[in-house]
Write a sequence for this structure.
């Protein structure tokens, strides 16, 4: 069995390391059953609406009906994970999220692969194969996650900070570009926002060299996410850049 850990440690190309708690089997199972109950309820409503056309579908046979149901259920799951950054209704309620194992943006192909391979993970019944594989995986990954390069983690609850104190009395120049601020909020995960906030809160606990290096890495990480015009970021120190990011993200999530 691989060495298991309760956390997923991700190091970005800029040298920033994130630690995310891995989701346990109980919460993953509960999220799965919540989704299943929701999808079957929606399926029944859809079947009722399509009942006038069932006469034509009856000739397709039971095998085709099962395939249509599978496509419907997994299609719904894929749409949710794509639109909600790795979450479905069940995952939202249980505080879980699917992320790329390297910390990169979750790609549509990854969502498709992990969900299409679910029919293998559930074999021979009750997720037996996928469950066994996850037990031997250091990151608790089922076959679909291993093939897609994804991991299911617990979301980190963030508390909105005192925005005024984050800015340290300075104007946030990002406000001059509300459309770019909106894109920044979409791209920054709650875990990244929390990490940046902690870096600012711990400012006085770090020596000058460590603080300079940390802020430089964080600022470089966030600069790669969206590009603000030169006149907006001109003269901003790395620390002030991070303060602007934190204020922008948490202001939008209040």
């Amino acid at each position: 069995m691989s060495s298991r850990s309760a956390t997923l440690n991700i190091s970005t190309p800029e040298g920033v390391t994130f630690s995310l708690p891995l989701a346990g089997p109980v919460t993953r199972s509960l999220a799965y059953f919540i989704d299943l109950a929701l999808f079957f309820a929606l399926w029944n409503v859809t079947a009722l609406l399509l009942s006038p056309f069932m006469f034509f579908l009856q000739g397709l046979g039971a095998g085709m009906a099962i395939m249509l149901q599978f496509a419907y259920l997994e299609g719904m799951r894929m749409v949710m994970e794509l639109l909600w950054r790795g979450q479905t209704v069940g995952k939202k309620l249980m505080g879980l999220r699917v992320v790329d194992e390297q910390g990169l943006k979750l790609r549509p192909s990854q969502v498709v692969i992990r969900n299409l391979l679910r029919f293998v993970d559930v074999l021979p019944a009750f997720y037996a194969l996928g469950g066994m594989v996850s037990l031997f995986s250091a990151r608790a990954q089922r076959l679909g996650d291993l093939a897609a390069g994804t991991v299911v983690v617990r979301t980190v609850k963030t508390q909105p900070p005192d925005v005024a104190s984050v800015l340290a009395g300075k104007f946030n120049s990002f406000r001059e570009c509300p459309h770019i601020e909106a894109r920044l909020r979409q791209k920054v995960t709650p875990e990244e926002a929390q990490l940046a906030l902690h870096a600012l809160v711990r400012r006085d606990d770090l020596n000058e060299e460590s603080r300079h290096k940390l802020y430089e890495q964080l600022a470089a990480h966030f600069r790669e996410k969206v590009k603000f015009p030169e006149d907006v970021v001109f003269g901003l120190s790395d620390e002030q850049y991070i303060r602007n990011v934190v204020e922008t993200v948490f202001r939008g999530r209040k």
Notes: The two ends are 43 Å apart (CA to CA). The CA atoms of residues 70 and 119 lie 9 Å apart.
